[in-house]
Amino acid sequence: MPLDPQAKTVLDFLSQGASLETLPLEEARASFEKLSATAQPEFVENVEDRTIPGPDGDIPIRIYNPFTEGAHPALIFYHGGGWVVGSIETHDSLCRSLANLAQCIVISVDYRLAPEHKFPKAVEDAYAAAEWVAENGADIHVDTGHIAVGGDSAGGNLATVTAMIAKEKGGPSLSYQVLFYPSTGAGIPSESQRENGKGYFLTTDMMTWFAGKYFETFDELQNPYAVPLKAEDLSGLPPALVITAEFDPLRDEGKAYADELEKAGVDVVHSCYDGMIHGFVSMVAFISKGTEAIEQAAEALRGAFRR
């Protein structure tokens, strides 16, 4: 399929600015925050910022609760940004939409970023947040029998890695995974990287910049908590929805991970959105297929929470 006209309009706009990897770190973070500010946040009944204890200090979280009373299923969400940029602010609009459409509480996690905090610090924060929600759900009106994890890009990586650790440690029990164009194959060449590595927002140069700040050594690329496609056994992970985009360098690794989950006996749905680019679910103000993907994720979550 050709590039979607709405996606092309976004790319034309983005091409007027500097690519993140060409900027000093703080400018790159500010640029990503500014780009995300174009979203139009939905109203959610209750939104609360708080901190929870983490392995090396407090972790900020934001809780989106579309209900006024009772205990409800929850999605723990990890934002994208290459483990280097992004925050609960950059993904505020997406989390609001997911809370309203999936009719669940969303807990967005502001995990530590690289290079100040290299691998595996983000992973440690991600799992600690899941543990905290499972253990303290009653305090935030969560039905702890129905907890899902999700995220986009690097956040999708953290979501499925959290599920891996939960399986290995025997908890917490997780109902589902929602993975928007997840990073699952850092360091593994693919056809989509060759096809889409330049000119489609996320570039191979940007990916290399992110990896250089997140990882300390090349050896870490053999660790499945860094590169989920390196996992030897994916059986027993929660059911998953993997959403990819046709013109995304991460397209093939997302599909490969969905295929590996299926081979391991995990109930998985993979949807590749034709004509789309990396980040499209955060571009719903300009790209209508972003809304379609969020609606698909919300429907999948509602189904998982009914089980």
From TrEMBL:
GO terms for molecular function: hydrolase activity. InterPro entries: AB_hydrolase_3, AB_hydrolase_fold, GDXG_lipolytic_enzyme. Pfam families: Abhydrolase_3. The keyword Hydrolase applies. Residues 75-281 form the Alpha/beta hydrolase fold-3 domain. The keyword Hydrolase applies. This is Alpha/beta hydrolase. Keywords: Hydrolase. Belongs to the 'GDXG' lipolytic enzyme family. It comes from Salicibibacter cibarius.
